[in-house]
Backbone:
């Protein structure tokens, strides 16, 4: 059943992620997004709207605009369409970490039958996002690629077109298309359990990155709270001055 795996992996009394709901069909263009997710490790989740849900692949190194670069893309459970606008903090449980809406837009399959293309393991598509554009292909590897396994293992490859190049788009445009911020800005907007314990990334590069993000987010929160306190303190003084003039 659609979204059953998505539902099974999550406790919706604890996660802010949207509940499982298959969207009704409509005539608008198909939605796609890429979410940058810092959990036990940093990765990028490519999601394509199809039959009322978001088909999803986890891309550990993120998309590459270079046609010579083949990026491993691990097929994961379908997500609800509402997930395509999600940005925030998953405080605990499956996927605990920070989610950024890194790119979004519309996509067009380059095959008449998407189901047949998925079954064959060769889905050609055109993306029209803020950062990712042009023709791409998802190719199933059958686990022959390092780090892959079985039917879950695919490759994401950019086709040669006017949008291809050797620019590292993940480094050139690292921030959110929704809020314009980075991980620390997203974390600073919330007060999840991640601040106190159970940090998802506890070692290695991801752990060090998470430590820096928490430190920077704490400073952003302190600066924001300090500015708010100054405004509140200044308000009564302004009111007293106004009353004296009257």
Residues:
């Amino acid at each position: 059943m659609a979204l059953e795996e998505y539902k099974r992996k999550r406790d919706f009394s604890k996660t802010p992620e949207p509940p499982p709901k298959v969207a009704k069909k409509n005539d608008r263009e198909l939605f796609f997004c890429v979410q940058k997710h810092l959990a036990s490790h940093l990765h990028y989740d490519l999601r394509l709207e199809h039959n009322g849900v978001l088909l999803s692949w986890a891309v550990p190194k993120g998309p590459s605009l270079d046609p010579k670069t083949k990026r491993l893309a691990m097929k994961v459970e379908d997500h609800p369409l509402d997930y395509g606008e999600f940005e925030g903090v998953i405080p605990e449980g499956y996927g605990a970490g920070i989610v950024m809406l890194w790119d979004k837009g519309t996509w067009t399959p380059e095959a008449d039958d998407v189901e047949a293309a998925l079954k064959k393991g060769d889905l050609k598509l055109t993306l029209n996002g803020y950062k990712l554009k042009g023709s791409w292909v998802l190719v199933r590897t059958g686990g022959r690629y390092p780090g892959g396994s079985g039917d879950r293992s695919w490759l994401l490859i950019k086709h040669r077109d006017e949008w291809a190049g050797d620019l590292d788009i993940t480094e050139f445009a690292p921030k959110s298309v929704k809020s314009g911020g980075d991980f620390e800005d997203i974390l600073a907007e919330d007060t999840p359990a991640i601040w106190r314990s159970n940090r998802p990334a506890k070692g290695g590069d991801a752990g060090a990155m998470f430590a820096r993000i928490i430190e920077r987010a704490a400073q952003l929160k302190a600066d924001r709270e300090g500015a708010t306190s100054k405004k509140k303190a200044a308000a009564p003084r302004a009111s007293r001055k106004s009353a004296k003039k009257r």
Observations:
- The first helix runs from residue 4 to 8.
- Helices lie at 4-8, 114-120, 169-172, 183-188, 204-245.
- The radius of gyration is 21 Å.
